[in-house]
Amino acid sequence: MLHKPFSLLVPLSASQNYSLALLTRGENSFQKKKLHKNELYKYFDFIRVVPYKNAEVIKKFVQDIGFDCQDVWVIGDSLKSDINLGIEIGAKCILYGYHHPHYHWIQDHESFALGSFYKVDNLSDIRQILESDSNSNSESRSMT
């Protein structure tokens, strides 16, 4: 079950006026089964499954849920399909070095980033970055 890591973000969402959104790439019915099996629906305000990700897909998702791209955080485990696309739309970005204990997932890696971003190895570090940003900027932010 994947729910424990995401539960670390729930207090932040409630206390800092964040909305939690999930944009995931994959075959729709397969991804939805994984979301239900891992009880992820309860942690996110918005969820969308898409067959592919590019900057326009992410930008449309952000706009559809009522945010401006510069007001969101893109948090992902791929420099290529998460971080660089987030930078391209003008979002703040965090690369999450996720390591699953039961399998090895090989991500599409880029050798360089299109701009600056944070890098973390656990979700508690993400909370620290968001809380620090929230303290320096009083506007609400969303995470995708």
Please give a structural write-up:
- The structure is a single chain.
- By secondary structure, the protein is of the alpha/beta class.
- Helix content is 39%, strand content 19%.
- The chain contains six helices and six strands, in the order ααβαβαβαββαβ.
- The protein has helices spanning 3-7, 10-15, 28-37, 55-64, 79-89, 123-136; strands spanning 19-25, 46-50, 72-76, 92-96, 118-120, 142-143.
- The protein has a six-stranded parallel sheet with strand order 2-1-6-3-4-5, sandwiched between helices.
- Helix 4 (55-64) packs across helix 5 (79-89).
- It holds the Pfam family HAD_2.
- InterPro entries: HAD-like_sf, HAD_2, HAD_sf.
- This is HAD family hydrolase.
Write the layout of secondary structure elements.
Blueprint: H1 3-7, H2 10-15, E1 19-25, H3 28-37, E2 46-50, H4 55-64, E3 72-76, H5 79-89, E4 92-96, E5 118-120, H6 123-136, E6 142-143
Parallel strand pairs: 1-2, 1-6, 3-4, 3-6, 4-5
- Looking across the biggest beta sheet, what order are the strands in? 2-1-6-3-4-5
CATH A-level architecture: 3-Layer(aba) Sandwich
| Helical stretch tally | 6
The structure class reads alpha/beta
What is the general shape?
A: globular
Structural domain count: 1
CATH superfamily: HAD superfamily/HAD-like
Give me the strand/helix succession.
Answer: HHEHEHEHEEHE
Proportion of strand residues: 15-25%
- What gap, in angstroms, lies between the N and C termini? 20 Å
The tally of strands reads 6
Major sheet description? 6 strands, parallel
